[in-house]
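Researcher: Go.
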Amino acid sequence: MKLYTHHSDIPKSIAPWISELESLGVKSEKLNELNDVYEVKNLVENIKQTLFQDFKSSYQSEV
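Model: Structure:
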């Protein structure tokens, strides 16, 4: 199993999703070929949805 140790080693198909994860504050040192684009994309979408729901519930409780 290949372990990606440098950002430049990451396949181009997942690189944008990895960048988006990092912009959300999530960084993983252990990426390998088992982390396919669908898995990473779903992780990004789930984190964004959770952050949005947390923001929405916080805002509604203040009103």
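Model: The chain has a mean pLDDT of 82.
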